[in-house]
Amino acid sequence: MSAFTQTERTTLKRLPKRGEFDREPVYAILDEAFICHVGFISDEKPIVIPTSYGRIGDDIYIHGSAASRMLRSLETGIDVCVTVTLLDGLVLARSAFHHSMNYRSVVVFGRASVVEDPQEKVNALHAFTDHVVPHRWEEVRWPSESELRATLVLKVPLDEVSAKVRTGPPIDDEEDYDLEVWAGVVPLKLIAGDPIDDDRLRSGINVPEYARNYSRSRS
After folding, report:
1. Max CA-CA distance within the chain?
2. Which among 217, 203, 213, 105 is positioned nearest to 162, based on CA atoms?
3. How many CB atoms neighbour CB 102 within 10 A?
4. What's residue 219's pLDDT?
5. Is residue 81 part of a domain?
6. Is the Cα dihedral 21, 27, 32, 38 positive or negative?
7. How many structural domains compose the chain?
């Protein structure tokens, strides 16, 4: 699997050793995270909007109401920056200066285009649904024609992409290792609680296995 080509915008200026351009780790981050932040310029002002997304191959898709200000701005073909971050731990050093976090992040530069093909649009909505809860699309009612008309789907190609990852313990100044201060990592992860039935759920319908044993990790 080939790596993403580094560009001036994706080349890391600070701590370049944390950069990652291979497709597999980039896909893994995108497939585990829930939310992306979409940055763009509208009316000469910077705007960043959090939203959900889905990935199919080398494209990510975002969607929303056809009346959405963000989507209407992006469909004009303006430049966009999409970011995704997973927080894995708090890194507590012996000095305040060297405190950090363990994380995995992806930055995508590009331009969004409107998905016009009906089948690609349905495939994108399928990807959104199963990105959040795998196998859910197979059970639920699919979007009606009116719902599809009311939904705008945009595609951002994964062409100009980089990931940045920090792992491991704190890195202190050598003279600080003798300090009487605890140092280490507090791991963090997103976990699911027990599913709660909808108040209007018909009797006899059991919680599906994918909800009962839900996990964000794709490993």
Report:
1. 67
2. 105
3. 19
4. 45
5. yes
6. positive
7. 1
SS (H, E, C) the chain: CCECCCCCCCCCCCCHHHEECEHHHHHHHHHHCCEEEEEEEECCEEEEEEEECEEECCEEEEEEECCCHHHHHHCCCCEEEEEEEEEEEEEECCCHHHCEEEEEEEEEEEECEECCCHHHHHHHHHHHHHHHCCCCCCCCCCCCHHHHHCEEEEEEECCEEEEEEECCCCCCCHHHHHCCCCCEEEECCCCCCCCCCCCCCCCCCCCCHHHHCCCCCCC
The pLDDT of residue 70: 77
Residues 80 and 47 sit within 8 Å (Cβ to Cβ)? no
Of 29, 208, 41, 49, residue with least CA distance to 131: 29
Residue 161, beta-bridge partner list: 108
Q: What is the CATH number of the domain that holds 89?
A: 2.30.110.10
Mean pLDDT by 10 residues, the chain (219 residues): 84 78 92 94 88 95 80 82 96 97 96 92 95 93 92 93 96 96 96 95 94 78
Judge whether 215 lies within some domain.
no
